[in-house]
Design brief:
There is one protein chain. By secondary structure, the protein is mostly helical. Helix content is 71%, strand content 0%. Helix 1 crosses helix 2.
Length: 135
């Protein structure tokens, strides 16, 4: 089988599991959780796009994503996109740790609980902010 066939099969399996999990959340009355999960990836894409256009953000992330070459070339199924996602996650983690959390809050398009997850993962050790720092 061709590589693109495997890619389509993998994508279809992922979407089936994803849709099943969303349906399970809706059936069990967790509509807000289902909405947050359904919009999480598109919200992350919007956030990265907004960050890339914002002049306050370091140019390194924008430059890396715009380059035609990567650590793992994009034509390699899955791995080619995963390296970009890892780089974006590491840059966002550094950005939040360097004091960019207010800008992340300003540019985040989705529900607060999704942003809280991203911020929790970006903090050192996944720690919560101090109670007086929540604003």
């Amino acid at each position: 089988m061709e590589w693109w066939t495997w890619l389509l099969i993998s994508l279809g399996a992922f979407l089936a599991v994803y849709a099943s999990f969303l349906a399970w959340l809706v059936i069990h009355g967790r509509h807000e959780d289902a909405r947050a999960l359904a919009t999480f990836i598109p919200d992350c894409i919007v956030l990265v796009t907004r960050l890339a256009r914002d002049p306050r953000v370091p140019f390194a992330l924008v430059a890396y994503l715009a380059l035609p070459f990567d650590l793992v070339p994009d034509f390699i199924p899955v791995a080619g996109q995963v390296d970009d996602a890892i780089i974006v996650a590491l840059v966002l983690r550094h950005f939040v740790r360097a004091g960019g959390e207010p800008m992340m809050r300003e540019l985040w398009p989705g529900p607060e609980q999704s942003l809280a997850l991203i911020l929790r993962l970006a903090r050192p050790g996944g720690s919560q902010p101090e109670p007086d720092a929540i604003g």
